[in-house]
Amino acid sequence: MSKLPKEYKFLDLSDYGRFPAKIIANSIKNTSLTPIHVTIGFIISGLISVYCILYHHFWTAAFFLILKSILDAADGELARIKKIPSYTGRYFDSIADIILNFIIFIALWYITNTSFIYAMIAFFGIQLQGTLYNYYYVILRNKYNGDTTSRVFEDSTPIALTGEKQRTVTIFFFIYKILYGSFDKIIYALDKKASQSNPSPNWLMTAISTFGLGFQLLIIATMLVLGWKVYIIPFFIYYSLMIFVFIGIRKLL
Q1: For site-directed labelling of 152, which of 35, 56, 59, 199 has its Cα 20 to 30 A away?
Q2: pLDDT tens for residues 219-241?
Q3: At a CB cut-off of 8 Å and minimum separation 6, what does 12 contact?
Q4: For residues 36 and 172, is the Cβ–Cβ distance under 8 A?
Q5: Domains and CATH numbers, the chain
Q6: DSSP code, position 226
Q7: pLDDT tens, 138-170?
């Protein structure tokens, strides 16, 4: 949890790829590779995993899902090491994540003959899960001296940072809002006062971190190699009910 001061750090179960991500970032920090290149790398890894899912190469699919998660952390680490934060990279990362998530659930629907509607409910559920986790996490980062490239309320086009073009930021932000806007509005409606409240306890943030994309991919990878592919979509549908449990606990505290 390098993005938070020590007293607010929590065990992030979705961030298991941070250590190898730092190794990768440090190994390429003096090269011409940029965080965008690393993001492209995780897109490729995600697409390979989808191909492997479709052809029932589940161990290989699991490997590339985990690699995708590691590279997903490495692009941000490289940006911090090189001191080149950018809204372009932040939105490109998020856009790639949601598109890959959609494709992964299409692949899972295809190989399990599950109802397409159920697959879409599961996809919608994991996006809401991830939005809740990011909502609480970004609030912490903005309040307590973490990095602020991600904003609590993505309601206006940000001003481009040094080294990036405003037009590019505007385009990527527009796409981001189309893809994520509804999820942001739903979570905000469910917990409007989160940003005005005391910080969530570290143990609660650890529990909510199971909603993080890294942990979601780990669950998918694990269930694939265990031969539980038919249970992946139902699991994420039912686990989405924990959104209301976590929000309720935060409000009570």
Answers
A1: 35
A2: 999 999 999 999 999 999 999 99
A3: 1, 18, 205, 206, 209, 212
A4: no
A5: 11-252 (1.20.120.1760)
A6: T
A7: 888 877 765 555 676 788 899 999 889 999 999
